[in-house]
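G., the chain you wanted modeled:
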Amino acid sequence: MTQLRADAAPAVARTSRPARKRRAKVPYNKREALTGYLFISPWIVGFLVFTAGAMIYSLVISFSHYNLATNTARPAGFDNYAQLFTDPRVATSLGNTLFYAVLAVPLEILVALGLASLLNQAGRGAGFFRTVYYLPKMTPAVATAAVFFLLLNGNSGAVNQFLRIFGIEGPQWLVDPTWIKPSIVLMTLWGVSGTMVIFLAALKNVPRELYEVAELDGAGVWHRFRNITLPMISSAIFFNVIVLSIAAFQVFDQAYLLFWRDQSNASPEASLFYAIYLFQQAFRQFNFGFAAAMAWLLFVIIMIITAIQMKFGNRFVYYEGGKD
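Predicted structure as tokens:
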């Protein structure tokens, strides 16, 4: 009897253990996958036809002398790419664009972050001020150019008249080559509200507990901003720097509407940006082969600058969950 109980004990112990639950394999639903592909098929078709297809076609015609007016093409080899290094206007337009990017991107970041910080502190009526600050982004580019053409007039513009109140003689914004690019930057800052919205969303996600603990430790406003706010929104800053840099190298609307829309050859060289010269080669000179080569050079430059920003800027970004 004792032997029977001894032998039965391990069996009871074995049967009393809870059975392991097997993970049920979720069957792959092909119908749901097909539905998903059908929903995104318009985007896929649009990307393949209007983006990838256009890029491949432009690469092909960049190795030819293609004239849109006569619809003729003849092989050019690397002549178009060699011309990029011999045409002085390519270097001029690229230098103007680089100068604009270096000046515009930091200012856009500072102004957008400042506006977002003010809106983040706003209490009653915050929605009204957000709408007011975002309205310039909705203004058509042509209307904005017309307004700034009047504001920046060197003789009777509102900006110079305001400076005269303080005894300052304003410059000829739209004539003096030194001030042409700063005037275009001022026009660009008018539509900075898109970047501001991204910063405002990032500021709203900063935990309030961090500020409360810092205040208890005696940290001032600047120390809280430098040691809490900037690290917590560093990912938004990093994103905006990359996006604004790409946009800066493709600047076109502001300079074209202010200086080049009348197709005059008397427009100042300081306002000749790379995208404008590309546009002139493609749609005024009908030299599509050379314009395509210019487009690919710009693509390579943007890719290199973006890669450098990703390589070095990523080190200063705070990731709450850690880096992969």
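Strands lie at 64-67, 72-75.

Shout if anything looks off.
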